Every structure is written in structure tokens, then in C-alpha cells.
Amino acid sequence: MAEGPVYRRVLLKLSGEALMGEKPFGLDEGVVAALADQIVEVHALGVQIAVVVGGGNIIRGLAASHRGIDRVTGDYMGMLSTVINALALQDALEKRRVPTRVQTAIDIREVAEPFIRRRAIRHLEKNRAVIFAAGTGNPYFTTDSAAALRANEIHADILLKATKVDGLYTADPQVDKEAVFLPEVTYQEVLERDLKVMDTAAISLCRDNGIRIGIFNLMTAGNIRRVVCGEKVGSVVRA
User: Fold this and answer.
1) Using CA of residue 214, residue 50, residue 39, residue 125, what is the dihedral sign?
2) Residue 195 placed within a domain
3) What CA–CA distance (Å, rounded) separates 119 from 96?
4) What are the pLDDT tens digits along the chain (239 aa)?
5) Long-range own/partner contacts, residues 191-199 (CB < 8 A, 24 or more apart)
6) Distance (Å, rounded) from C-alpha 228 to C-alpha 223?
7) Of 17, 69, 133, 176, whose CA is between 20 and 30 Å from 58?
8) Rounded CA gap, 78 and 89, in Å?
């Protein structure tokens, strides 16, 4: 087991669903607090950490479009929901004395900074956590794509995809009992086998720029630290 971190700068992708815990909707304050505790652990190691949050606990643009809302309008509603989640996480981190900045891909200067790449990197260099909200700022793009994009822009050493299962499987293990765990696969295998870890745009972007993807169970306390310290937790997607 590694004694210290093996990654200098990481980007953590959190789904909105992870933030609602067992609730059917919205935020579970206990879950947000537990996530903040895990991030604090990593921050205390001197690792520069950025976070991309989803908004599925409030609204998804695609789901809204199925209910009759214009797809583009629904996607912007989804972007705003990620801002709500980002502010909640920022509040939890700053209560734990971790200086945090929220940067948004759409301009909401009253509550957050606009995303400026050089400013984000400077925050990380000053040991501030940075939370990226509002996806890419464009409709039709998922927060997975936003995570891949931001990971490349800030030159992250790894993209950490936090999930509710232990890693990458051949199918959803919560639905298919025959699903096989895959500890290590290539980007190409993910695309060819249509493994549902992230959307194809995100996988392609990481492949083209050599960003590793670590997939692990967020619900196990300490897992973020374990992955950052090089323990064999979950799955890895790499060249």
C-alpha cells in the first residue's frame, strides 16, 4: 500500500444521485457531509482536488424533455441544478476549513465565479478545492463530458468517477446478477463493448489525451483517499 498520494492533481466526478442518498429527490445533508469528509481527507494529503457535480437529484434535461419540456430548456434547467449541488458541497467543505471556489460554465456572478481555466489552476495551486458546475455550459452535453473536459483543461492526473457500485462491470450489477467485474480495461474496450461507465464523448476525450479514469464505490468511506494513494480499489480505464 502506498504511504502517500500517487497523484498530484485529481478531478472527482460526483453524480447528483449520489448527493440524495436514499431520498427520492433533492439533497441528503448527511450524505453531503460524508462526501465532504472524504474530500477533506484527500485535501489534507496535499492533493489538488477539483470536483464536477451532476444535477440528476433535482432534474435531468433529457428526462425533462420526455415530459414535454423543450430539450435545450431542460438542459439549462439541469445546469442550474448542478449549481445548487455545488453550493451545498462548497458550504460543507468550508465548514471543514477547506477553502473552496465554485466556477460555473454559465454566468451567475452573484453566487459563483465564471469558469476561467487559468484562474481554476491558480486556485488549485493555492490549495483551494474547486467545484465546477453547470456542465460545459452547452445543451446536449452530459456532466460526464464536462468532467472529461475539465480534467483535460486543468491537466488532472486522473479522473475519478464515483459510483454506487464497486467499479466497472460488463452490465449493471444491480440489475444483472451475471455481470462480471472488470478491474482494468482500455478506452477502446469501453467504446467497443459499450460499457456504460461514461458517455462516449467523455471516454474519447480521455483516450485522446491519456487521462486515466478510476471507477470506484463512493459509498465506502475512505475510498477516495485509497484510490489517490494508489490502492487497488475499483476499476481503471487506461491506454
Assistant:
1) positive
2) no
3) 23
4) 457 899 999 999 999 988 998 888 899 999 999 999 999 999 999 999 999 999 999 987 767 777 889 999 999 999 999 999 999 999 999 999 999 999 999 999 999 999 999 999 999 999 999 999 999 999 999 999 999 999 999 999 999 999 888 999 998 888 888 899 999 999 999 999 999 889 999 999 999 999 999 999 998 999 999 999 999 999 999 98
5) 195/168, 195/169, 195/170, 196/172, 197/161, 197/168, 197/237, 198/144, 198/147, 198/148, 198/161, 199/142, 199/144, 199/145
6) 9
7) 176
8) 17
Using the Cα atoms of residue 46, residue 5, residue 48 and residue 220 in order, give the sign of their dihedral.
negative
Q: Does residue 97 lie in a domain region?
A: yes
The answer to whether residue 169 is domain-embedded is no
Question: Domain with 210 in it: what CATH number?
Answer: 3.40.1160.10
Pairing type for strands 158-163 and 9-14 reads parallel
- CB hemisphere CA count around 144 (13 angstroms): 17
Helix (H) or strand (E) holding 56: none
Domain assignment of residue 1, yes or no: no
Percentages of the chain per state (helix, strand, coil), in multiples of 5? 40, 20, 40
Domain that holds residue 84: 9-164+200-233
Tell me the C-alpha to C-alpha distance, in Å, between residue 33 and each of 21, 62, 92, 192: 11, 29, 6, 38
- State which amino acid sits at residue 138: N
Residue type, 236: V
Work out how many domains the chain is built from and give that number.
1
